[in-house]
Automatic annotation (TrEMBL), chain A:
Gene Ontology CC: one annotated term: plasma membrane
Pfam families reported for this sequence: BPD_transp_2
Transmembrane parts of this sequence: 28-50, 62-81, 87-104, 111-134, 140-159, 180-203, 234-256, 268-301, 313-334
Bilayer topology annotation: Multi-pass membrane protein
Name of protein: Sugar ABC transporter permease YjfF
Domain of life: Bacteria
Keyword line: Cell membrane, Membrane, Transmembrane, Transmembrane helix
Signal sequence residues: none
Subcellular localization: Cell membrane
Record keyword Transferase present: no
GO MF entries: transmembrane transporter activity
TrEMBL record, chain B:
Source taxon at top rank: Bacteria
Keywords, alphabetical: Cell membrane, Membrane, Transmembrane, Transmembrane helix
Bilayer topology term: Multi-pass membrane protein
Compartment(s) of residence: Cell membrane
Signal peptide: none
CC terms in the record's Gene Ontology section: plasma membrane
Protein name per UniProt: Sugar ABC transporter permease
Matches recorded under PANTHER family: ABC TRANSPORTER PERMEASE PROTEIN YPHD-RELATED-RELATED, GALACTOFURANOSE TRANSPORTER PERMEASE PROTEIN YTFT
Amino acid sequence: MTAAPTLERPLAQRAPRRTPRWQLRLSAWLPVLTTSAILLAMFITGQAVFGNFFTSRLISSLFLDNAYLIVLAVGMTYVILTGGIDLSVGAVVAFSGIFGAQLLQTGWPAFIVIPAIVVSGSLIGALIGVLVQVFEIQPFIASLAAMFLARGLAYVVSLQSIAITDPAVTWLERTRFQLGGGWFVTPTVIIAVLTVAVSVWVLQYTRFGRSVYAIGGNEQSARLMGLQVARTRIAVYVISGTCAGIAGLIFAAYTGSGYSLTGLGMELDAIAAVVIGGTILTGGSGYVIGSLFGVMVYGLIEISITYIGVDSWWTKIVVGGLLLVFVVLQRLLVARRKR
Amino acid sequence: MRTLTRHRLFWPIAALVALVVINTLSRPSFLSVTVNDGELYGSLIDILRNSAPLMLVGIGMTLVIATRGIDLSVGAIIAISGAVALSYIANSGSPESLVTVATGIGLGIGVSLVLGLWNGFLVSVIGIQPIIATLVLMLAGRGIAMLITQGQITTITSGPYDFIASGYVFGLPVPFYISVVAVVAAALLVRRTAFGVLLEAVGINPAASRLAGIKSRGIIWIVYGFSGLLAGAAGIIYSSNISAADANNAGLNVEVDAILAVVIGGTSLAGGKFMLSGTVIGVLIIQTLTATVTFLGVPPAVTPLFKAIVVIVVCLLQSPKVRQLLTKRRKPTPRAERTETVKVSAAA
């Protein structure tokens, strides 16, 4: 009896001092805003130091070089928003690429092969989803197993690199739509930007998207609210796998070949980009647009390193350091919000 | 029989035995051990020797996983440790001197310990999730190792240093002794002192263990430091084995293999109860699997496929759903059901 009022009093006191809605909104967007500020700062510094940095040409090729990573990061964002992780995407990129290259080499037409590349990714994603949801294996281990599976299958298909000469696939990479003023886009970049746009819509404006956030926020509450937890969770891994398949297509077109050893550690790049983009790994908070910025920051670091002319391993050190800064920053934000 | 199959180590041991049987059937000389100059040679000895780095890393990983953590940085630490030790020895001018080699090893392992403690600092003091905290070092670590070796593959010719990986004492390879010492030390630490109990308490319920007066911060710190230390020792063995520090490839994917070994050995990634003996068997399974694939004449590149199958099968056998199906068919006993609920709550 006596315990109840003492418990309630702080609650009652706190109620009128609740944080206003715009402030909550702002704190959710703060990581993304920070990332875009960093991105802007990098452009300005680069322009100031190197002169010809902030140019249409550089930004166009930034998108071109990182189109596959954008698609991967978008897929990864879904999974991380539910509190999961998908380590298989790098291996899936390698597998879908070499699988498609092999099919093309044996004479299959491109209109069958291109969907096959994407669907092979979806299937591996579906496998992870089932392992995670039905058999309750942790996402980390389930996607690790899928990573081995995809990598092994890629080796089974071929150990050698297979060149892709099919006009439809090379068209994806070689075509440059000039937009004037030095701006250009390739079909691969269009695919990547479309993936981002569709995902922004799905995650912000559909019931499915709300379920994704709800599961990441608190799975039990989501279930009690009557959301389709099982279906959503499997779908999230299918989406990530599909994105990895699309990225495999883009990467195969980008490199003009399929090779079973590509994509080593690519999943870590994707995860790092998502985290730098402000999505929290425990799930429930983050935005796809942040992941896009994260990839841009990643790509800009690489370009800056080549501009400065120091050795390429500095890229890894800088990315690691930046990751650290972001995680600590998020940690501070979360700690403040809890208080 | 039923109590036997229900033992937590039954499936891992069965898998190991099955692998050995397959090998012996396909190549009868697999089990034979020959004595040459008082030194033992044979496939089994090779497996024992080659498993040493993974064994060290696996033990550290088991303790980290017991606290609900994970250490992705061990591969990078292996690269850094080898790079530090070899750079020191190569620049010292007297690579054959025992003092130089000992100092080099000390430096390598010391740096690794510091890196491990850094991980522990991020996890326990700053409160970053283990997977991301160690990802920082995993990404940056190889870059740092490159920085130390200046992007080259540092090679040395040093008798004492080579001895670590290819030497023999009393007929058995030195790495085998190193892994035995590590296993025994870890086992004594967690089973003969209160440390193991505290570790499980932190892993099972961090909040409850804190209320019970356990200083989880210090324990987590120790565990990551220990993992870094062991990874450093693994890095020394690895670089000694090839007499070179390869910043790009040293310990590549070792974190994945170590995590698999721990999981195959029956320790849940959800933390809490852990089994060092399971990890030892898990490491042997992975090493034997790699050897098997080579013996069967399959291209070694296909190894991941076999690993995937083993992981999926072992994980499925351990998953609550499949266990439920199995026990249902076998007529459930109340005791089995109780362990089931414990498992679920630990996973949640």
